[in-house]
Every structure is written in C-alpha cells, then in structure tokens.
C-alpha cells in the first residue's frame, strides 16, 4: 500500500504547478469501523471540450490486508454539450485492469449537482456499467450548508452483478471543507461477498 500512496502523492505534486482554473483536486478520507478509506477526484480541463479525470480509491483494513479494495480510473471526456459528455477510460479495480466507453449526462446548479453515465466496460469480459453521482448542499445559516452526496457504480453482465459500490456522505459544508458521517458499501460476485464501512469523513475542494 505504501507504493500506491507514493504514486498518488507523486501525481498530486506533478500537477501542483497547474493553474487553479485548469485543475481541481478533491480528497475524501473516511475513518470507519472496519477500514480507512482514501478517495480523490482530480480534474484537469484541457480546453472547452476536453477534460481529464482521475478517480482513485484505496480502502485498507486496520489490522490485515485480506479485504483491501482498490479502484483507479483515468477518464478522457469530450463535451458534446454543456450537459452531455462522451468518455473513454482505463484503469484497475478488483480484480484487475479494465477499459470502458460511456456517455454521461450532467446537471450542475448552485446547491446541487447530478450526473449519470452508462456504457460498456471490458474486464475479463464485457459488462454494462452505470454510475450515478449526486451532491446537495442546502443553505442552513451564514457560512454553513448541509451536505449530502451519493456515488453509486454497478456492473451487469451475463453472469449477473459482478461488482458494485455505493458511497453515502451526510454532514455539513463550510466554504471548501465538508465533514460528517460516511457509509461505504461494496459488492463482489453477485453480492456473494459484501463489505461495509461506517464512520466519519472529511472532504476538501482544492
């Protein structure tokens, strides 16, 4: 795991010289009852239509490595319209490397954002992959907002439901920092194996 964290750190440092308008970095850390989770989104806007995204997740149990989870996805997005993107991605996740092509619909407003994508993924065979991301931050009082987010990713193939995850966050937002309660759920091999992690999270928008 130390090598993986070093790779993430090197990536962040290499991008640190880019302008804030081009680059965004959002780490999300969870201290749960079962494991420690680190997740981030890095977005780099190449031009008005092209964007690169890196989504990285490491989930490590405190005392043993039996149920370690990893998910690294690098995506090139082409904007057809302000709400529609075409995506090409490659990466690695339990149990190995994958490639995908997808279409995405996205809505963004002052207090919420929503995106839905659907496409084909190849990882030891083809599957239909869908993902949903939703964030809502209603104003509560001066300098404080509520914060609720859901990230869900699922794959379907001729064997059923090989992989899925659902991450839920509920808490408060102050300027660029968010914190509160987190729940992570993972399913493998038609939910023959499931993992849960419930605890506290902190997230920051750089």
Task: Describe the 3D structure.
The structure is a single chain. With 206 residues, the chain is mainly beta. It has one domain (19-204): Porin (Beta Barrel), CATH 2.40.160.40. The chain contains 1 helix and 13 strands, in the order αβββββββββββββ. Strands 1-2-3-4-5-6-7-8-10-11-12-13 form a 12-stranded antiparallel beta barrel. A hairpin with a 3-residue loop joins strand 6 and strand 7 (112-122). The radius of gyration is 17 Å and the shape is globular.
CATH class division: Mainly Beta
Approximate helicity band: under 10%
CATH superfamily: monomeric porin ompg
Q: Main beta sheet: strand number and arrangement?
A: 12 strands, antiparallel, barrel
Low-confidence stretches: none
What gap, in angstroms, lies between the N and C termini? Answer: 24 Å
The third-level CATH topology is: Porin
User: What would you say the CATH architecture is?
Assistant: Beta Barrel
Q: What would you call the shape?
A: globular
Topology:
Blueprint: H1 2-15, E1 23-32, E2 35-45, E3 50-61, E4 69-81, E5 84-93, E6 96-108, E7 112-122, E8 126-136, E9 139-141, E10 144-157, E11 160-174, E12 177-188, E13 193-204
Antiparallel strand pairs: 1-2, 1-13, 2-3, 3-4, 4-5, 5-6, 6-7, 7-8, 8-10, 9-10, 10-11, 11-12, 12-13
Signal peptide: 1-20
Keywords: Signal
Protein name: DUF2490 domain-containing protein
């Amino acid at each position: 795991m130390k090598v993986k964290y070093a790779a993430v750190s090197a990536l962040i440092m290499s991008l640190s010289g880019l302008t804030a308008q081009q680059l965004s970095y959002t780490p999300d850390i969870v201290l749960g009852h079962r494991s420690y989770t680190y997740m981030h989104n890095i977005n780099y806007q190449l031009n008005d239509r092209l964007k690169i995204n890196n989504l990285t997740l490491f989930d490590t149990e405190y005392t043993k490595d039996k149920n370690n989870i990893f998910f690294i996805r690098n995506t090139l997005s082409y904007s057809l319209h302000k709400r529609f993107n075409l995506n090409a991605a490659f990466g690695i996740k339990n149990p190995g490397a994958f490639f995908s092509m997808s279409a995405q619909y996205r809505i963004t407003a002052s207090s919420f954002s929503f995106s839905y994508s659907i496409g084909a993924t190849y990882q030891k065979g083809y599957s239909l992959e869908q993902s949903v991301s939703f964030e809502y931050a209603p104003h509560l009082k001066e300098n404080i907002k509520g914060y609720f987010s859901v990230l869900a990713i699922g794959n379907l193939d001729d064997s059923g439901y090989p992989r899925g995850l659902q991450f839920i966050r509920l808490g408060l937002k102050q300027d660029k920092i968010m914190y509160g309660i987190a729940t992570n759920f993972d399913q493998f091999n038609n939910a023959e194996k499931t993992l849960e992690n419930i605890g506290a999270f902190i997230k920051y928008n750089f």
